[in-house]
TrEMBL record:
Keyword Disulfide bond: yes
Annotated keywords: Disulfide bond, Secreted
Gene Ontology CC, one term: extracellular region
Pfam families, A to Z: ADAMTS_CR_3 (PF19236), ADAMTS_spacer1 (PF05986), NTR (PF01759)
InterPro entries documented for this protein: ADAMTS/ADAMTS-like, ADAMTS_ADAMTS-like, ADAMTS_CR_3, ADAMTS_spacer1, Netrin_domain, Netrin_module_non-TIMP, TIMP-like_OB-fold
PROSITE patterns: NTR
Organism expressing this protein natively: Leptobrachium leishanense (Leishan spiny toad)
Record-given protein name: NTR domain-containing protein
Stretches assigned to the NTR domain: 326-445
GO biological process, one term: extracellular matrix organization
């Protein structure tokens, strides 16, 4: 007979979630069996927390209890690890390390996860999923409002399409799509064009695709929510999160072509400014004022968002004060930064800075090409390269030579075709060492997602 749960945990310091056990008699037992025969048990999760990184998985610990013990009619001992291909996920099936067989030691201990990626928990040999009420085997779920057992009665659904046209000629920057208020749940934003979605916090800090830098698809934690950002090879973008959010968030777009429509949807509590039941089916687009294109001089922080009623519709206006505070420049460091920027950039060049000129809220540099490591588009001996701030970020000194990793930007009207450096672009003074590193960087790009 195996050791008790308490003995096992003391011996190996494993990590698992516990469960409380209650007694109940189900109505179905009374109706079908003429009474409650025996006590029906109800289990609820307790001691819920995150296991330490160095903790032994609970199922692995149970297999390890049989390490090097004589069995199977032999004095030879084996080392055991979990085997997840067995028919019953709640059996303790372990694989002998270095051998081609596994053995079933009976049921796993209560509280063991049904699998490495399962949300179910094994109780008495059965895999039970946990309801939002914490009860194992419960079918109670969370509604779109985030209420356990609710019926979407405490929130309203917002679903619209942003159809604003491509900005007029000369506009070069981010445009506000929608403000997602604090408390929003089940958020999803979809774009089918080459335009770039961006996510910005209420303090003006960009989380995804901000400051003219393209972010990797992945998982981003912001405002108490986990956002999943996906971008396909055809530039189809999806941004979604379950929520709820703890602060207002802004969906922005960096236009590069005609806008076929940006779809967005989310649920908000009824007490928010969106809580007008008559507007639930209104597919009209809110009016937003264009956001000016200065990545360092943020335009959305401290924005005063006002809701006013016009012709039976809710319309949103934005008044945006501007500030001119330059932030400390971030400098790329290390081999991984070099590889990442190299693979993402349209141009990787060695260039000499000939002159510098401020043009509005941007800086234009005239450069002389010394060497081209990578170029997706043709270049000439002398080029202009643009930086979308006036803060010397990145810092480029005249008559000095640099390694520059830049991108190309062409607007819809084809009136702008520029080489662009962002605040996060890889910029380093040229040196023989830097030159040597760049020669071997290109081969790493094929391994990047």
């Amino acid at each position: 007979m195996g050791p008790s749960v308490a003995e096992v945990q003391t011996e190996l310091g494993s990590c698992r979630q516990g469960q409380d056990r209650g007694e109940r008699c189900r109505d179905s037992d009374i109706a079908t069996k003429g009474g409650c025969l025996g006590k029906q048990r109800q289990y609820k999760m307790c001691h819920i927390g995150t296991c330490p990184e160095d903790a032994i998985p609970f199922r692995s610990m149970q297999c390890a209890l049989y390490n090097f013990k004589s069995m199977l009619g032999s004095q030879q001992g084996y080392q055991w690890v979990p085997f997840y291909g067995a028919p019953s996920v709640c059996d303790l099936t372990c694989l002998a390390v270095g051998h081609h067989f596994y053995y079933n030691f009976g049921r796993v201990l209560d509280g063991t996860r049904c699998g490495p990626h399962s949300v179910g928990t094994c109780i008495n040999g059965r895999c039970l999923n946990e309801g939002c009420d914490g009860i194992l085997g419960s079918d109670v779920t969370t509604d779109s409002c985030g209420t356990c057992g609710g019926r979407n009665e405490s929130c309203i659904f917002i679903q619209r399409i942003f159809y604003d046209p491509f900005p007029s000629a000369g506009f070069f920057g981010y445009k506000n799509v929608i403000r997602i208020p604090a408390g929003a749940t089940q958020m999803k934003v979809t774009d089918w064009s080459r335009n770039l979605l961006a996510l910005m916090r209420s303090n003006g800090h960009y989380v995804i695709n901000g400051n003219w830098a393209v972010s990797w698809p992945g998982v981003y934690q912001v405002a108490g929510a986990v956002f999943h950002y996906n971008r396909t090879e055809s530039n189809h973008e999806v941004l979604e999160a379950i929520g709820p959010t703890t602060e207002d968030l802004y969906i922005m777009v960096l236009f590069q072509e005609y806008n076929p429509g940006i779809e967005y949807e989310f649920w908000v509590p009824k007490e928010t400014t969106y809580s007008n039941p008559r507007s639930l089916d209104d597919q009209s687009v809110m009016n937003q004022k264009d956001m000016a294109p200065d990545p360092l001089v943020q335009t959305a922080p401290n924005s005063q968002m006002k809701i006013r009623k016009e012709h039976g519709e809710l319309r949103e206006t934005t008044t945006t004060p501007r500030t001119g505070v330059c932030r400390r420049c971030t400098k790329p460091r290390g081999r991984s930064s070099r590889i990442k920027n190299y693979c993402q950039s349209d141009f990787v060049i060695r260039a000499k800075i000939l002159s510098r000129r401020l043009m509005g809220q941007e800086t234009r540099y005239e450069i002389q090409l010394k060497y081209v490591y990578k170029n997706k588009f043709p270049m000439v001996h002398r080029e202009y390269i643009w930086v979308s701030n006036i803060c010397d970020c990145p810092e480029l000194k005249e008559q000095k030579e640099y390694v520059l990793m830049a991108t190309r930007h062409v607007n819809y009207e084809q009136t702008l075709n520029r080489i662009l450096l962002s605040v996060n672009s890889y910029v380093k003074p040229w040196s023989p060492y830097e030159d040597q590193q760049l020669w071997s960087t290109n081969r790493h790009c094929v391994f990047l997602p």
